[in-house]
Design brief:
Helices cover about 55% and strands about 5% of the residues. By secondary structure, the chain is mostly helical. Pfam families: Phage_integrase.
């Protein structure tokens, strides 16, 4: 397909073919959808631009136009999704020089972020407000995510066989495709396949809840699952406990934040969360890491002052 591309072909059409050849079937559907969305923006912003005319000025103008309606990080993602296709076009002689070189990434000012995590007291108030009965419910789902930090789709993909009560751990090896028609699917990346330790209280609670359930069936899935439904339940309990309203994903941030504040190393938190790189953990929780570094400085100064 790409062998038939000519320099005079439209750039957005080349990019669509490039996605089909290099990305379709190689990445998760949710990631592939982002590439197709990028292609739609190309068709909107540069509908008549031919491959041969893609130079540094045109590329920078494309980024600038995209940045008018998007935050800087989103523009950066847009740039990264285009760069691979453009470098391949350069290699094939369809574009003379790399137009992405020295590209400047702009973007709208970031919107005010909602509260992403709770502190230890707030989480305690939330969890004690949960109505936990002797059967599986979304309340138990909320408790489990708060105590493990696993992703929403990972929690939905859990079966009783994934619980190793003897060794106090849960095996994360799959997710549930709740965004489409359901069914098990692979984890976000290879690093997401992991074993997550759980406390003895969670062991006692879930060993009783799961004893009569089918061993290989998802615990929390019974029909179509909507992220918004579980978020609404969590919001109701946040309000009931008089704590900031967070999302289901905010439970993951809460879990990681509490571990970091408790002195757990960044490397250990990264492994527990299933991050592909420790850099992801550092970037996501930079504000906490900086706060902890400031505490470390105070501690070091107090220790040194005692030496005189």
């Amino acid at each position: 397909m790409l062998s038939e591309i000519k320099k005079t072909d439209l750039f957005w059409d080349y990019y669509l073919k490039w996605i089909t050849v290099y990305k379709q079937g190689a990445i998760r559907d949710v990631t592939l959808a982002k590439y197709f969305m990028t292609q739609k923006w190309l068709k909107k912003l540069i509908p008549d631009l031919m491959l041969k005319d893609m130079n540094r000025i045109n590329y920078q103008q494309l980024l600038n136009d995209y940045a008018k309606e998007h935050e800087r990080q989103t523009t950066m993602d847009f740039h990264h999704q285009l760069k691979g296709a453009i470098l391949d076009a350069v290699d094939e002689g369809l574009i003379e020089r790399d137009p992405t070189r020295k590209a400047i990434i702009k973007g709208k000012q970031e919107a005010v972020k909602k509260t992403r995590f709770l502190n230890q007291f707030e989480l305690h108030m939330l969890l004690t407000s949960l109505k936990l009965e002797n059967k599986i419910s979304w309340e138990w789902f909320i408790l489990l995510l708060a105590k493990t930090g696993i992703r929403f789709s990972e929690g939905l993909g859990l079966t009783p066989d994934d619980f190793d009560f003897k060794h106090q751990r849960i095996s994360i090896s799959k997710t549930w495709n709740y965004k489409e028609d359901g069914g098990f699917q692979p984890t976000k990346n290879s690093s997401s396949v992991r074993k997550v330790q759980i406390d003895w209280q969670t062991v006692v609670q879930f060993s009783e809840l799961l004893k009569d359930l089918p061993r290989d069936k998802p615990i929390f899935v019974n029909g179509k699952v909507y992220n918004s439904t579980v978020n609404d339940i969590l919001e109701r309990y946040c309000k009931k406990a008089n704590v900031p309203v967070i999302s289901i994903h905010g439970l993951r941030h809460t879990h990681a934040s509490l571990l970091l504040f408790s002195g757990v190393s960044i490397a250990s938190v990264a492994r527990r969360l299933g991050h592909a790189s420790i850099n992801t953990t550092q970037k996501t929780y930079l504000h906490i890491i900086l706060e902890l570094e400031n505490k470390d400085v105070d501690l070091m100064m107090r220790s040194l002052s005692g030496l005189s």
